[in-house]
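Quiz preparation item.
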């Protein structure tokens, strides 16, 4: 499961770099064309089988429709001056991915930044949550909404659903939702999505989604003699910095973001492009090998001379 997310991240890195370049070249792409291109990048990754659900690719106001499904005949162009929400995932032989990122290609408005930052604060709060064993997911749901609630905003969907490993992308029994009827405790090894959002009708949609795996956390105390649990991230794709209003983030949240981005860089940059890079990668290893031989010969020479 961990590994398929890194291959997925490599495909997403290629995709986002491609999309940004096309839009800055003023190429007009529809929401469906963009989703098709993402599928093309993903399908080159090893173990790829299929998408894990229909891609939600929404520019501007379409992003505010939570289960929007763009159709080739009727969908919109991905506009440079609007927020673009992309929720997609894949099935690999070794796991299932589900990720949402929201980006802007030019300058976001103060309103968009304010809302995006509040969604991000909720995302970080879930990611960093530590809770006693036997806690049902609904207990955590308010953590994700707290920053939005403070300005009278909210979203009309759950914060997280269970995810199967090379199985259903929506797979219970666990969830993180305001629907407090689900009393299933979050248990070690369970996978859940962390996807708070905010949707402004006829304007824009925002969602930031990573998959998390429940793990035991080493707390300084163990009140009640029980285990305390938290989350490990599975998804490694950058979060667009220009959408963040830094004045709304705490020092800990900024550190979280910087740490996450260094992890993305460390984990994803070393993954060779399956189509172009194997030769580069071999060349790179060969160069390092040659450098080592040269260094060895030089140091031998220096030792011999110094005698
Ligand atoms: Mn999801």
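Solution:
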């Amino acid at each position: 499961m961990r590994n398929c997310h890194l291959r997925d991240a490599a495909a997403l890195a290629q995709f986002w770099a491609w999309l940004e370049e096309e839009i800055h070249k003023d190429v007009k792409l529809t929401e469906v064309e963009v989703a098709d291109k993402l599928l093309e990048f993903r399908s080159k990754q090893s173990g790829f089988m299929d998408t894990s659900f229909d891609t939600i690719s929404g520019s501007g106001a379409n992003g505010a429709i939570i289960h929007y499904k763009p159709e080739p005949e009727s969908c919109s162009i991905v506009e440079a001056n609007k927020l673009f929400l992309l929720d997609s995932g894949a099935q690999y032989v070794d796991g299932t991915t589900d990720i949402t990122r929201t980006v802007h290609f030019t300058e976001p408005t103060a309103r968009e930044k304010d809302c995006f930052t509040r969604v991000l604060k909720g995302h970080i709060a879930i990611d960093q949550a530590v809770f006693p064993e036997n806690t049902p997911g609904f207990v955590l749901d308010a953590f994700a909404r707290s920053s939005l609630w403070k300005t009278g905003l909210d979203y009309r969907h759950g914060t997280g659903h269970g995810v199967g490993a090379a199985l259903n992308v929506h797979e219970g029994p666990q969830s993180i939702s305001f629907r407090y009827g689900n009393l299933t405790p979050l248990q070690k090894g369970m996978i859940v999505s962390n996807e708070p959002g905010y949707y402004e009708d006829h304007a824009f949609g925002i969602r930031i989604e990573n998959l998390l795996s429940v793990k035991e956390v080493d707390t300084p105390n163990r009140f009640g003699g029980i285990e305390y649990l938290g989350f490990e991230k599975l998804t490694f794709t950058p979060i667009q910095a220009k959408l963040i209003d830094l004045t709304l983030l705490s020092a800990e949240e900024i550190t979280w973001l910087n740490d996450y981005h260094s992890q993305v860089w460390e984990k994803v940059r070393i993954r060779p492009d399956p189509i172009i890079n194997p030769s580069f990668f071999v060349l790179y290893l060969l160069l390092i090998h040659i450098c080592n031989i040269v260094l060895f010969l030089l140091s031998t020479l220096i030792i011999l001379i110094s005698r």
